[in-house]
Amino acid sequence: MEHIIDKIKSLAIENFEEIRECRRHLHRHPELSFEEFATSRYIQQQLTKFGVSFKADIATTGVVAIIEGNNPGKKTIALRADIDALPITETNTHDYVSTNQGVMHACGHDAHTASLLGVAKILTALKNEFEGTVKLIFQPSEEKLPGGAAVMIEEGVLENPKVESIFAQHVFTPFEVGTVAFCFGNMLASTDEIYITVKGKGGHGAYPHETKDPVVMAAQMLVALQQVVSRNMSPFQPTVLTFGKVIANGATNIIPDEVYLEGTFRAMDEKVREQAHQLIHQIATKTVEAFGGTAAINIVKGYPVLVNDDAVTKRSYDRAVQYLGADKVKITTPRMGAEDFAFYSQKVPACFYRLGTGNPEKGITSNIHTPTFNIDEDALKIGMGLMAYHAISELS
């Protein structure tokens, strides 16, 4: 495959300036989840310019491009990029900062999308070098439930033709540009949103004995809920339960009637996830009832566990070594973050890997979801090149 690697690398360099401008255009014009209408039109315009056929308006703003090699019915694989941005105000000063106040590509989806557009150009130029079909999935709303992946799957993105394996990459500032990293098995956690309203009886702060104080109930409940993880979950099964929002809208001398809480639960195992949901309901309800109140609990199921198929990931790791050299390819560990690519991984063999984008010498060190996030754009060469090599190799 050395001749293919040489061709891909040459095309990645040849197309770099154009793909970098695609990334910068997307960065200047970010859009929130399921609102990516201009982004979708831009993707369609670029695909049309590249001579790539596609279907649009999938999951509202999603686009799926189709590139057929020789014998297109032989096998189909998919490559995915997410296209939405975050509600963050950018504080960078480069000349392609967001022009949409309060919205920013702070998670690198502009780089994912631009890289996949680069893949479209590369595979179109090399379509006589492989057999089968490649679906390029430009997916909306990775950042917001229910997640664009789930909606696209419902609308048949993995069918007609049926996808046999799927790949995606994600920018990662802690790894320097020029490197990639793979994780075997469970890579990212499930994520669920927890909403609890604790109801009691409010009153004057000077006469708490005449109330059923929901603030104290909520405090007791929060402490008790920590036992979901510390005393019920195995230390060999990573889980996280965090509450980041508590509203008790009283005053210095007013005990409110209710307290509202929001949190998240994350797990690396689907059975553990279900067990935890039951415990959260049980512990919250019983703790509050013991103090004379009630608890209304709503757990919104989010993304499942992201599972990298061992065989597909091994092939991907080996291809990365071939493409970049062994010193540029890392093995990374599972993390408690979440990604809606997990929905695809629950349906077909999948590989999700990290694309190194950091460069301390250039001052590019800010992590994702921060107002100063940026990437070393040289990573786009690897972003498009390695994904194109995955596709061609997987179909060979």
- SSE order, one letter for each helix or strand: HHEEEHEHEEEEEHHEEEHEEHEHEH
How many separate structural domains? 2
* C-alpha geometry: elongated
How large, in whole angstroms, is the Cα Rg? Answer: 24 Å
Q: In what range is the share of β-strand residues?
A: 25-35%
Going by CATH, the homologous superfamily of the largest domain would be: Zn peptidases
User: Uncertain regions: pLDDT < 50 for 5+ in a row?
Assistant: none
Q: Tally the helices.
A: 10
Q: Main sheet: which strands, in order across? A: 1-2-4-3-5-16-6-15
Q: What is CATH's topology name of the largest domain?
A: Aminopeptidase
Going by CATH, the architecture of the largest domain would be 3-Layer(aba) Sandwich
Report the CATH C-level class of the largest domain. Alpha Beta
Count of distinct strands: 16
Structural class: alpha/beta
Q: How would a crystallographer describe the biggest sheet?
A: 8 strands, mixed
Distance linking N and C termini: 10 Å
Helix content: 25-40%
Mean pLDDT: 97
Report on this model:
- With 396 residues, this protein is an alpha/beta fold.
- The chain has two domains: 2-188 and 305-395, Aminopeptidase; 190-301, 2-Layer Sandwich (Alpha-Beta Plaits).
- The chain is 35% helix and 26% strand.
- It has helices spanning 2-28, 37-50, 109-125, 148-154, 214-225, 227-230, 270-290, 310-324, 341-345, 379-395; strands at 53-58, 62-68, 76-82, 133-139, 165-176, 180-182, 185-188, 190-199, 203-204, 239-247, 254-255, 258-267, 294-301, 306-308, 329-331, 350-358.
- The strands form four sheets. An eight-stranded mixed sheet has the order 1-2-4-3-5-16-6-15, with helices on both faces.
- Strand 3, helix 3 and strand 4 form a beta-alpha-beta unit.
- It is elongated and about 80 Å long.
- It starts with a helix and ends with a helix.
